[in-house]
Each structure stands twice: as structure tokens, then as C-alpha cells.
């Protein structure tokens, strides 16, 4: 156990350094998306190639995150933080000086190796530093800082790309990351008692192939289609490896990733709800930019500004939601939030060519408000039921499943939209030829394609509404969780109070 965690007072200095480090890694991710077209043009590459900057990052994260449960138990917070920020800073420098795509991709993957350690490490420190009755408020402040990154990221990125070279995105991050690394080097002093555990090589191999295969397969399916043999084979290999990985963990005395966390019903329920929400949540992030830029012709800068109020509201609500969670638990918050999210997502399934910009801003803000009531309370309630020794495994499991469900959700939504668009386009073409007796002009075909794409987007939002409704049903089964040890030893805090009375 870290010496830092032994005192009653939470290690605020340690948490502050970790929060700033996590913030900068989050901000880095949101900066790059808007810059992809500029990178394509400058490096003369196609969409399928540039997508690897996102897919590669996701793959490395998917491979690294399952190992973090072992790393957190084996090494001190100082060792892991310096390693994570060192890798992230090195990757940022490599990406910033790159003039070839494969060097840029290498930089992104080195960044990912550092970023993947940061989030589970921070979550674990938060869980062990705060008592259960204050954990919601702590997680709320944590959420406010982290959610501010995706709030400002797209707008900041749009401004930088408009005025400077895309490499400035990395040059902007590099000095900040280097300063955080130096601050961490001098401030973090925690030490770790020697822990005699070893990483099982076969588990690492099976985990890497399993999670990596699933992430790559589903990410590729969104671009290449489900009929591509490479997609099907990769997913099949991923599933088989993952089954073998789970069986291997069950046999080990000290597993790399302990699937025993699913013996705790609130953690299992929170995982399912969070995965469903991740799959549905990507509909807004994926489909709205397509609608506003491709169909409505709104500029990238205005598209980023359209999403800004919702993102800021989501960030601002985080500490409020945290305090409410401490007072009333996660069930009411989750039900309310899911109902708001489902209604606002349904409203997005009714988009037209005349839908106003302000309507999109307001509905997106309402949707983000709903999401702010769900994600943190549900996941924190699930983690609260775990015994302390399983915190690293719970946070690693949650972060891994977030990556996988995000990839699966994106692939499924892209596929649904593509199939629906093609079906509607085919029907419109057939009707036009049947009525006019000749193939429509290129201009008419473009109008038909816009109509078909809009129909595809609306249909996909409607499917997302149904998925969210499923999560809403599951939310009614949430109960306020107490740690497993507390259920055995007595009520939360009872032993601490008796100890203090005896000491007095």
C-alpha cells in the first residue's frame, strides 16, 4: 500500500498533479479529430489511412489498460505517473516533428501507451483516498476538470488549425506535458512496499490479441463493411483469444485482470449500463458532425461551437451530480438522466433540412445534461461495491470495456447508417427512373443522396433511442452499494468510530 494513502486526509497534492496530467492527455485526444482533414491534405493520405491515428491510439489503449491492474499493485503512484507522462511527452514530441505518416502514427501510439496508464491510476487513487460517503463529490470535481477538456478541445483545435500548421497542436501540448512531468518528479514522493507479484506472459498475449482484435475488427467494420473477410477473421480471433484469456484468469491464483469483480451485482449492472450508454453516446458525437457539415454545409468551427454549450454544461454538472450522488445515491440520478437522454436522442431522430442551428444547440445541451446524470453515478456506485483489493481490477475493467463498447457502438452505428442510406437511395433512384423514364441528372442525384443520408442519420438516432431505453429499464434495478467488507464487518464507518472512542 502507498504510504500516501495511510493518513485520514486525502493526498490533495498528489491528486492535483494526477488530475492535471489526465486533463492534458484528454485534451490531446479531442484536439486531433478536427485536424484530420488538414493532416490528410498535408501528408497526401486518404481517409482510411488517417483513421489509423484514432484506431492505433485505441488499439494501444485496449492492449495497455488491462495490464494497469497489475501495474497499480506492483509499482508506486510516482513510478507509474512519471512513466506515463514520460511516454506521453515523448510521443507528443515525435508527433510534432513528424513529416511522414508512419512517424506521426508512432508518436500517437507512444502517447497512447502513457495515456492508457493515467486514467486507471487516477481512478484508483481517488477510490482509496476518499471514504464512500464523500466519493461522489470527489468524483464530481474530478469529472468537472476532465470533462472541460472535450468541451474546449474541438473549438481550440478549430482555431489553431485555421491559423497555424496542424503540428502546432502537438507543439502546444509539449511544453505543458514537460512541465507536468517535472512537477510530478519533484512533488510525488510516495513509496511502495515491495510486492511479490509477477505478470503472466500468456495472459498479456491473450489479452492483447483479444481486446486488440475486437477493437481493430469493429473499428475496421465501420470503414470497410461487415462483408470484408479481414474484419470477420479479426473479430473471430479476438473473441476466441478473449475466451481463452478469461479461462486463464480463472485458473491463476493472482490473475492479471480479475473477472471476479462480476460476482458483485451492482458492479456487473453498472458495467452493462455503461457499455450500453457508450454505444449509444457515440451516435451524437458521430452523427451530428456528419449532419451539420455534410448535409447542412456548416463550417468545422461553427460545428465545434455548436457542441460547446452542451460540453460545458456536462462539465459544470459534474460536481453537482457528485454531491447529489452522495445524498440520494445513483438510482434516481440514472433514471432521470437516462429518460432525458432518451427523449433528446429521439428528438434528434426527427432532423430535417430546415432544422435551425439554435434547436441543435439546445437539444444537444439537454442531451449532454442527461448524460451528466448517468455516467459518473452509475460507474461510481458499481465500484463502491467492490472490496478495496479489487479497485485496480474494477477500474481497469471499466476503462477496457469503455474502449471496446465505444468501438463496437461506432461500427454498428456507421453500418446501420450506411445500410439505411443505401436502401433509401436505391428506392429513390428506382422511383425517379420509373416516373421520369430516364436516369436523373447529377444534381438531382446529389439531392437524393442528401435525403437518403438524412434518413440514415434519423434512423440511427432512433435505434440509439431504443438502446438508451434498454439502459433505462436496467437503471430501475440499481441499489445503493456498500463495500463488500462493510457488509461483512458492519456498517460503513462503524469500526472507525469504535476505534476512535477507544482511543479517546
Can you walk through the features of this model?
The protein has 504 residues and is an all-alpha fold. It has 2 domains: 1-194, Growth Hormone, Chain: A (Up-down Bundle), CATH 1.20.1250; 276-504, MFS general substrate transporter like domains (Growth Hormone, Chain: A). Helix content is 80%, strand content 0%. The chain is built from 19 helices and no strands. The chain has helices spanning 12-43, 47-50, 52-64, 68-74, 77-96, 101-129, 135-163, 168-187, 201-224, 229-251, 265-295, 300-328, 330-348, 357-372, 375-384, 391-436, 442-475, 484-489, 494-503. Helix 1 packs parallel to helix 7 (135-163), helix 11 packs parallel to helix 16 and helix 13 packs antiparallel against helix 14. The longest helix is centred in the C-terminal third of the chain and has 46 residues, at 391-436. It starts with 11 loop residues before the first helix and ends with a helix.
Amino acid at each position: 500500500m502507498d504510504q500516501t494513502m495511510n493518513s485520514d486526509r486525502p493526498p490533495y497534492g498528489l491528486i492535483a498533479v494526477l488530475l492535471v496530467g489526465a486533463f492534458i492527455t484528454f485534451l490531446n485526444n479531442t484536439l486531433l479529430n478536427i485536424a484530420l482533414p488538414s493532416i490528410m491534405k498535408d501528408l497526401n493520405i486518404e481517409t482510411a489511412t488517417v483513421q489509423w491515428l484514432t484506431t492505433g491510439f485505441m488499439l494501444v489503449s485496449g492492449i495497455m489498460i488491462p495490464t494497469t491492474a497489475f501495474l497499480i499493485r506492483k509499482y508506486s503512484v510516482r513510478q507509474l505517473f512519471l512513466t506515463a507522462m514520460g511516454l506521453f511527452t515523448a510521443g507528443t514530441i515525435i508527433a510534432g516533428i513528424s513529416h511522414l505518416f508512419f512517424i506521426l502514427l508512432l508518436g500517437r501510439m507512444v502517447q497512447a501507451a502513457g495515456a492508457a496508464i493515467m486514467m486507471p491510476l487516477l481512478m484508483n487513487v481517488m477510490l482509496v483516498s476518499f471514504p464512500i460517503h464523500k466519493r461522489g463529490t470527489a468524483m464530481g470535481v474530478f469529472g468537472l476538470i476532465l470533462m472541460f477538456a472535450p468541451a474546449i478541445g474541438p473549438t481550440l483545435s478549430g482555431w489553431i488549425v485555421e491559423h497555424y500548421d496542424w503540428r502546432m497542436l502537438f507543439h502546444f501540448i509539449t511544453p505543458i506535458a514537460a512541465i507536468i512531468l517535472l512537477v510530478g518528479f519533484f512533488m510525488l514522493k510516495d513509496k511502495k512496499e515491495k510486492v511479490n507479484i509477477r505478470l503472466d506472459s500468456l495472459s498479456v498475449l491473450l489479452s492483447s490479441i483479444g481486446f486488440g482484435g475486437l477493437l481493430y475488427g469493429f473499428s475496421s467494420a465501420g470503414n470497410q463493411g461487415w462483408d470484408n473477410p479481414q474484419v470477420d477473421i479479426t473479430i473471430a480471433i479476438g473473441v476466441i483469444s478473449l475466451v481463452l484469456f478469461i479461462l486463464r484468469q480463472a485458473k491463476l491464483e493472482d490473475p492479471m485482470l480479475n473477472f471476479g469483480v462480476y460476482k458483485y451485482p451492482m458492479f456487473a449492472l453498472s458495467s452493462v449500463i455503461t457499455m450500453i450508454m457508450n454505444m449509444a453516446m457515440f451516435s451524437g458525437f458521430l452523427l451530428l458532425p456528419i449532419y451539420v457539415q455534410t448535409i447542412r454545409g456548416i463550417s468545422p468551427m461553427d460545428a465545434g461551437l455548436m457542441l460547446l454549450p452542451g460540453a460545458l454544461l456536462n462539465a459544470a454538472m459534474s460536481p453537482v451530480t457528485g454531491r447529489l450522488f452522495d445524498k440520494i445515491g445513483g438510482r434516481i440520478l440514472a433514471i432521470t438522466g437516462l429518460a432525458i437522454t432518451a427523449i433528446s436522442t429521439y428528438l434528434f431522430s426527427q432532423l430535417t433540412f430546415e432544422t435551425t442551428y439554435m434547436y441543435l444547440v439546445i437539444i444537444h445541451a439537454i442531451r449532454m445534461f442527461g448524460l451528466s446524470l448517468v455516467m459518473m453515478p452509475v460507474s461510481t456506485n458499481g465500484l463502491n461495491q467492490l472490496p478495496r483489493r479489487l479497485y485496480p481490477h474494477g477500474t481497469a475493467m471499466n476503462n477496457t470495456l469503455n474502449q471496446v463498447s465505444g468501438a463496437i457502438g461506432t461500427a454498428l452505428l456507421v453500418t446501420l447508417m450506411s445500410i439505411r442510406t443505401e436502401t433509401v437511395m436505391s428506392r429513390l433512384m428506382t422511383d425517379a427512373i420509373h416516373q421520369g423514364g430516364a436516369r436523373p441528372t447529377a444534381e438531382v442525384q446529389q439531392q437524393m443522396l442528401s435525403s437518403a443520408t438524412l434518413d440514415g442519420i434519423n434512423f440511427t438516432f432512433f435505434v440509439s433511442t431504443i438502446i438508451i431505453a434498454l439502459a433505462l429499464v436496467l437503471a430501475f434495478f440499481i441499489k445503493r452499494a456498500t463495500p463488500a467488507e462493510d457488509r461483512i464487518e458492519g456498517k460503513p464507518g462503524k469500526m472507525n468510530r469504535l476505534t476512535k472512542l477507544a482511543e479517546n
